[in-house]
């Protein structure tokens, strides 16, 4: 007889992305404004955020539905020739809904998930607190993960999940180049590949 169990999931995730086209735009922006920038805009690298979801465990396997929100911002600060503040800040948001399946071998798990990732890139309007949306697009992704699952009680299970996420489509981020006034270098296609780790709490035992 297979035992079935439903669990609620709460997690904190850290992702690392090294998007080549996006970071090329940022580096070009830094070069074009080198005379006024004191603090250069950094490449997009580490993102972080929360994840919520539900797991339906059946025997040695489980289906999992998750929503994850990762974000980060990068900023350049300097001084114009007339001593006024020069500042540019870009905000990144990755909202992903995914459905996956994982097999368990003792405390070790191995799984994959298909995701729908909504990506938004925004910038500040002048020096105000208001933001202008530059990119709002979506992509399909596939995430492969390992996991270590620690069952300390019948109430809570703690899991550590390193993952690699493969984008299945590209996005056009040309409007980011326009906002940063980077000279046109052709198409600006980006996919935002990612690797990272999630720290997860499930209610119930493993």
Q: What does this entry look like structurally?
A:
This protein is mainly beta and 206 residues long. It has a single domain (7-203), classed as Porin (Beta Barrel). It is 9% helix and 65% strand. The protein contains two helices and eleven strands. The chain has helices at residues 20-32, 174-179; strands at 4-16, 37-39, 46-58, 61-79, 85-105, 108-124, 131-151, 156-167, 171-172, 189-190, 194-203. The strands form two sheets. It has an eight-stranded antiparallel beta barrel with strand order 1-3-4-5-6-7-8-11. Strands 9-10 form a two-stranded antiparallel ribbon. The longest helix is centred in the first third of the chain and has 13 residues, at 20-32. The two termini are 17 Å apart. The model has no long low-confidence stretch (mean pLDDT 92).
Instruction: Kindly give the count of domains.
Output: 1
Structural class: mainly beta
Kindly report the CATH topology: Porin
The DSSP helix count reads 2
**Adjacency order of strands in the biggest sheet:** 1-3-4-5-6-7-8-11
Task: Name the average pLDDT.
Answer: 92
User: What would you call the quaternary organization?
Assistant: single chain
């Amino acid at each position: 007889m297979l035992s079935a169990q439903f669990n609620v999931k709460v997690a904190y995730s850290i992702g690392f992305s090294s998007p080549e086209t996006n970071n090329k735009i940022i580096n070009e922006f830094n070069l074009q404004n080198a005379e006024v920038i004191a603090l250069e805009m950094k490449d997009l690298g580490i993102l972080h955020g929360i994840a919520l979801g539900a797991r339906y465990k059946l025997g040695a396997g489980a289906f999992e539905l998750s929503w994850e929100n990762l974000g980060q911002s990068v900023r350049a600060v300097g001084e114009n020739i007339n001593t006024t503040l020069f500042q540019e800040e870009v905000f990144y948001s990755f909202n992903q809904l995914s459905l996956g399946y994982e097999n368990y071998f003792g405390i070790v798990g191995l799984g994959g998930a298909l995701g729908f990732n909504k990506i938004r890139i925004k910038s500040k309007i002048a020096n105000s607190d208001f933001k202008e949306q530059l990119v709002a697009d979506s992509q399909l992704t596939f995430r492969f993960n390992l996991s270590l699952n620690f069952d300390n009680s019948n109430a809570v299970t703690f899991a550590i999940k390193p993952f690699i996420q493969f984008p299945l489509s590209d996005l056009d981020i040309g409007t980011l180049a326009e906002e940063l006034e980077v000279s046109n270098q052709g198409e600006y296609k980006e996919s935002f590949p990612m690797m990272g780790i999630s720290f997860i709490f499930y209610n119930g035992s493993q």
